[in-house]
Amino acid sequence: MIYLDNAATSLRKPPQVYGAVQEALARCANPGRGGHAAAARAEETVYRTRSLAADYFGLEPEQVCFTANATEGLNIALGSLVRPGDRVVLSGLEHNAVTRTLIGLGAELFPVSAPIFDKEKWAEAFAEALKPGTAACVCLHASNVFGAVLPVERIGEICAERMIPFVVDASQSAGLLPVLPKQWRAAYTAMPGHKGLLGPQGTGLLLCLDQPLPLRFGGTGSSSLDQQMPQDLPDRLEAGTLNVPGISGLGASLRWLRQQDGTSMLRKERKLLETAVRRLRSMGVRIWDGPNQIGVLSFRLPKLDVETAAALYAKAGVALRAGLHCAPFAHRTAGTLPEGTLRMSLSVLTEQKEIEGFLTATKGLLK
To answer: Is 15 exposed, middle or buried (0-12, 13-18, 19+ CB in 10 A)?
Structure first.
């Protein structure tokens, strides 16, 4: 199979990830729930991964909280900041993990829009929208539909100047682009472990510069007599048994990423994307591309609706995604409703031969 659906999840992982998951399944018990060797090993595994993540993102270990996915992290972040009727400014590219959460919280949404790949226009649009009385600002770092990178550092500066809490969704950028919560002045930065970080599904990170409200309540292995959730992070957000095998696998992927040259990985991904863009355009395929794009590309084939095309790609052994990609706001901004687009998405482990196979399949579909 030619796998080009990495914006949904990375399928191929570094080999160390599989081994770390297996070892944790066999040797780790419940961290913080016993003094025996298996519990101590689990606690050490969790702390080691937490420390690796803290170093990777320029934070202290206690500012790194484990979640099940980016969606859980965004629920915690937004639930800590937003109350019914609050005004929240967000980009017009956001995923349902943001928009449905805000609607569920009863927020009043103020999405801003700009030409998808124009960072300067995005910054200007946010500067105009971030008015007094705004309870929070939410912005993705990179679009899961179009691969556009937004100017989160500039938006964070504007939020800091106006004392508006800033939340960043780094679901598509973590592991590929620098994610720098302190430079962004981001109260919270959420990400999954299973996409660009190349870890297992069922893992995520919430990076906290603020003091959040817990989403879940229960045992933490600490302060058991106290019937309130602990005030200190990370225990405040980590009630219940942690996904130790997943966290162990995430630790292995973080160690692998630290050994790589991030600039080279990004350059490789963009080179593969440029090849696909150039060849698709020469075939008359409608594409959405722009400067500073990560390896996510939306496109449409002439005379084929996107769902039919995706099914035909699958039959040809190419895995990609069609439709709205859980981001109807992004398609509204781009004018691609109601059908949506086809989306191919790369990872740092995608190979040139996979791009060639995808392009060969595309030629076949066009015939």
So the answer is: exposed
Written as one string, the DSSP assignment of 92-161 is TT--HHHHHHHHHTT-EEEEE---TT-HHHHHHHHHHH--TTEEEEEEESB-TTT-PBP-HHHHHHHHHH
> At residue 297, what is the residue type?
L
Domain housing 291:
2-11+261-366
| Pair of tokens at residue 96 | 């349902």
Specify whether 242 is located in the same domain as 293. Answer: no
**296-300 vs 341-345, strand pairing mode:** antiparallel
Partners of 204 in beta bridges: 67, 192
Sequential pLDDT tens for the chain (367 residues): 999 999 999 999 999 999 999 999 999 998 877 789 999 999 999 999 999 999 999 999 999 999 999 999 999 999 999 999 999 999 999 999 999 999 999 999 999 999 999 999 999 999 999 999 999 999 999 999 999 999 999 999 999 999 999 999 999 999 999 999 999 999 999 999 999 999 999 999 999 999 999 988 888 777 777 788 788 999 999 898 999 999 999 999 999 999 999 899 999 999 999 999 999 999 999 999 999 999 999 999 999 999 999 999 999 999 999 999 999 999 999 999 999 999 999 999 999 999 999 999 999 999 8
Residues 171 and 188 both lie in one domain: yes
Q: What's the CA angle centered on 143, arms 137 and 145, to 5 degrees? A: 135
From 241, 258, 275, the end of a domain falls on 258
Q: Assess whether 253 and 272 both reside in one domain.
A: no
Domain count, the chain: 2
**236 and 302 assigned to the same domain:** no
